[in-house]
């Protein structure tokens, strides 16, 4: 069985040309009786002879990628290159043009590059190709190109304020519900009715009761319930601050992109609700995107983190609105660059859900943008601002995730009890 | 961070001492010009210098081999009675020229060339030159120009020492790394 094309040694032709030249020079030197000329040809003939050596073996490259703190460590190993002259390696990080190094075979056995973590989620980190040269650099073997991919998980963070649904479900849990129950929060005093527990009788209030016909006064409490939080991610856009890159979307140049903001936002919201004992579901708005069904506990958190980490941008994907549980708090994570998502927010708000719009569009930079770019961006931003203002008017909480005041906004929204 | 101030993301492998890959074509040009000055005269010298520059820019074309042929023709045109110590330099320059051409054809101009990667080529050049220079010395002795041998020996010895030093340095750095 013959070796793959990439693993064959190829002559580059320089050795043959040199060999012929050396023979001619030696012939001329001897023919003209000029020992000095013949001497010129001797080193050339010896060098040409070196190029005739037949290298053996097949070299191959391998890449291993690991994530350490805020760096991606890529190890490139070229094996089977012992005895060759040198190795030429071209390595391109994050789909950028490659840089080339020429190293000895010993050094090529273990090369390490440290790269910054630019984005979260699945991504191409390093692409390596190369050649191995032997026999006086006249014979070459091409290495099979290798691509190293990594999946970077979002950092573990929390949100400081948890927003609750305007009307909680009737399951027991840690939050005060707006219905009567056995919670700890005092609601009001009311005349005793059949079915009231005796321990709820407020004897002091009964004694102070001005109405002589009243029998007993009971203390009524709010019920407790767990919140059903639904996090919905719009994965169609993954745009960075550099507006000129919105078309090309090159990973190394677009900056911290909307999905880089969205992934930690989803993870932080999910972590905070799940730690409070609530139930969380995650849905990708795009039809082909992954989802995590509603549930609670640590395993649900890991599931949500895993699903959101694997989420990739799906530009042009068709939307599919998820089915929401009754009276849920819905976090809609999007760039709100088009009307469709805003329409869903309005729909859900009108259905009685508490809707929080998490705006993950990075602060734009118009550097390098021409006049057409600037104008188009201005129109887009005006439309977007109108859209978000409309959502605010419809009682949708809008939180710009990149804003330093996002925790303050969430805290203000937490105090807001909604329309009664 | 704006696009212009954002650092470019490059896969940088630490490789120890290195020179830019463009050093090889530059060396081809320099050695070609030096050899032309040693061997060629008048119009051929101009042609040789031009050809040296062309060979450096177009190292994958026949230009370098034409330069070698031109240098040999130049040597052929020289008076055989006027042999001197420059022969040792010409033999070395021509050899270096072809080795550098072979390397420059393989090494990309925009690359970082680890010095240790030049080890095998330097070693082979050194070994071949030892034999070649001995033969040059014998030829010069036979031509009764033995009085120039110390000069040739000094030049050859210095070059060999430089090559050996380069080898030792790069291998030590590589081993320590």
Task: State the gist of this model.
The complex is a heterodimer of chains A (about 425) and B (about 180). Chain A contains nine helices and 16 strands.
Tell me what you see in this structure.
The complex is a heterodimer of chains A (420) and B (177). Chain A has helices spanning 14-31, 35-51, 105-108, 203-208, 258-275, 298-309, 339-350, 371-393, 406-415, and strands at residues 9-11, 60-68, 71-79, 86-93, 99-103, 111-116, 121-134, 139-152, 175-191, 217-225, 228-233, 279-284, 291-295, 329-334, 354-359, 397-400. Chain A has 420 residues and is of the alpha/beta class. In chain A, strands 13-12-11-14-15-16 form a six-stranded mixed β-sheet, with helices on both faces. In chain A, α5 (258-275) runs antiparallel to α6. Chain A is elongated, with a radius of gyration of 34 Å. The model of chain A is unreliable at 1-5 and 169-173 (pLDDT under 50). Chain B has 177 residues and is mainly α. Chain B has one domain. Chain B contains six helices and two strands. Chain B has a two-stranded antiparallel ribbon. In chain B, α2 runs antiparallel to α3, α4 packs antiparallel against α5 and α5 runs antiparallel to α6 (149-176). The radius of gyration of chain B is 19 Å and the shape is flat. The two termini of chain B are 35 Å apart. Residues 1-5 of chain B have low confidence and may be disordered. Chains A and B meet through α1, α2, β4, β5 and β6 of A and α3, α4, β2 and α5 of B.
Strand arrangement within the widest β-sheet of chain A reads: 13-12-11-14-15-16
| CATH fold-type name of the largest domain in chain A | Rossmann fold
- Report the mean per-residue pLDDT of chain B as an integer: 85
Structural class of chain B: mainly alpha
Transmembrane segments (chain B): 15-36, 43-61, 81-103, 115-142, 148-169
Keywords (chain B): Membrane, Transmembrane, Transmembrane helix
Organism (chain A): Amnibacterium setariae
Transmembrane segments (chain A): 12-33
């Amino acid at each position: 069985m013959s070796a793959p094309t990439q693993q064959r040694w190829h002559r580059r032709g320089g050795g043959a040309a040199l060999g012929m030249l050396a023979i001619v020079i030696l012939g001329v030197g001897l023919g003209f009786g000029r020992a000095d000329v013949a001497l010129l040809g001797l080193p050339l003939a010896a060098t040409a002879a070196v190029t005739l050596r037949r290298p053996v073996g097949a070299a191959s490259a391998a890449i291993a990628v690991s994530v350490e703190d805020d760096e991606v460590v890529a190890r490139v190993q070229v094996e089977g290159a012992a005895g060759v002259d040198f190795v030429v390696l071209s390595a391109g990080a994050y789909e950028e043009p490659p840089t080339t190094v020429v190293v000895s075979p010993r050094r090529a056995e273990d090369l390490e590059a440290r790269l910054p973590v630019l984005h979260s989620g699945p991504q191409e980190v390093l692409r390596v190709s190369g050649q191995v040269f032997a026999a006086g650099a006249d014979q070459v073997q091409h290495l099979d190109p290798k691509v190293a991919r990594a999946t970077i998980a979002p950092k573990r963070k929390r949100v400081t304020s948890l927003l609750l649904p305007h009307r909680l479900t009737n399951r027991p849990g840690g939050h005060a519900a707006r219905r009567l129950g056995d919670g700890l929060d005092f609601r009001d005093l009311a005349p005793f009715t059949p079915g009231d527990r005796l321990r709820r009788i407020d004897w002091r209030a009964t004694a102070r009761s001005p109405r002589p016909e009243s029998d007993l006064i009971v203390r009524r409490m709010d019920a407790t319930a767990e919140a059903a939080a639904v996090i919905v991610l719009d994965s169609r856009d993954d745009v960075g601050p550099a507006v000129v890159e919105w078309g090309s979307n090159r990973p190394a140049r677009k900056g911290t992109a909307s999905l880089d903001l969205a992934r930690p936002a989803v993870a932080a919201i999910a972590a905070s609700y799940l730690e409070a004992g609530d139930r969380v579901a995650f849905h990708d708005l795009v039809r082909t995107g992954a989802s995590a069904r509603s549930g609670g506990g640590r395993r649900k958190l890991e599931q949500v983190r895993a699903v959101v980490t694997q989420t990739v941008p799906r530009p042009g994907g068709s939307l599919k609105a998820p089915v929401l549980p009754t009276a849920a708090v819905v976090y809609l994570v999007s760039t709100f660059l088009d009307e469709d998502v805003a329409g869903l927010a309005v729909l859900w708000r009108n259905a009685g859900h508490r809707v929080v719009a998490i705006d993950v569009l990075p602060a734009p930079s118009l550097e390098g943008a021409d006049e057409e770019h600037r104008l188009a961006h201005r129109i887009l931003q005006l439309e977007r601002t109108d859209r978000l203002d409309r959502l605010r008017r419809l009682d949708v909480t809008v939180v710009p995730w990149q804003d330093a005041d996002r925790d303050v906004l969430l805290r203000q929204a937490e105090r807001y009890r909604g329309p009664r | 961070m704006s696009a212009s101030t954002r650092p470019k993301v490059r896969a940088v492998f630490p490789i120890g001492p290195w020179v830019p890959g463009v050093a090889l074509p530059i060396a081809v040009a320099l050695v070609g010009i030096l050899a032309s000055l040693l061997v060629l005269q008048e119009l051929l010298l101009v042609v040789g210098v031009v050809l040296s520059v062309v060979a450096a820019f177009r190292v994958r074309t026949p230009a370098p081999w034409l330069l070698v042929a031109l240098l040999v023709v130049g040597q052929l045109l020289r008076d055989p009675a006027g042999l001197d110590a420059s022969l040792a330099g010409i033999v070395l320059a021509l050899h270096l020229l072809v080795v550098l051409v072979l390397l420059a054809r393989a090494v990309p101009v925009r690359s970082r060339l680890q010095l240790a990667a030049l080890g095998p080529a330097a070693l082979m050049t050194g070994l071949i030159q030892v034999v070649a220079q001995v033969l040059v010395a014998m030829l010069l002795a036979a031509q009764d120009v033995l009085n120039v041998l110390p000069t040739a020996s000094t030049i050859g010895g210095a070059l060999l020492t430089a090559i050996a030093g380069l080898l030792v340095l790069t291998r030590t750095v590589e081993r320590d790394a």
